[in-house]
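seq as requested:
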Amino acid sequence: MFAGRGRAFFAVAVLVILVLSACVESAPPRPDIQVDDAWVRAVAGPNVNTAAYMTLRNVGNAPDRLSGARSEIARMTGLHRTTIDDEGLARMGEVDGLDLPAGGTAQLEPGGFHVMLMGVGSLVEGDTVEISLLLEVHGPLDIVAEVRAF
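struct tokens:
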């Protein structure tokens, strides 16, 4: 008789565990973006352009995409890339985004991808600039970049 109760108890326990397991939602894959060495090039004068550079690391388990940026110090911002054409001339143009694969790194650096800050005032070495990176999955990511001489 006791053995029958033990089996029944075991069966009920297994059933409860299965029901509870079905109720628990698993977390969806999510990117986790880290920003290292964010800086902005120093400039002088009113209504000038400059750029922000940094290293973006996606240490999460899902891809993301940098689609732009915002900053209160700039009249306009954009994600740009500098390329060298067939004649060796540097060309800069706006891009619609930069992929950040899971586990991947993206470098925003002089001569490559960068956040363009247009219509800013003077920025001197040692100042800081607040920038909101616009990520498609992660959402806005607010950073502070140090102003440096180039």
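Strands lie at 33-41, 48-58, 64-70, 76-84, 90-94, 98-100, 105-108, 113-120, 128-135, 139-148.
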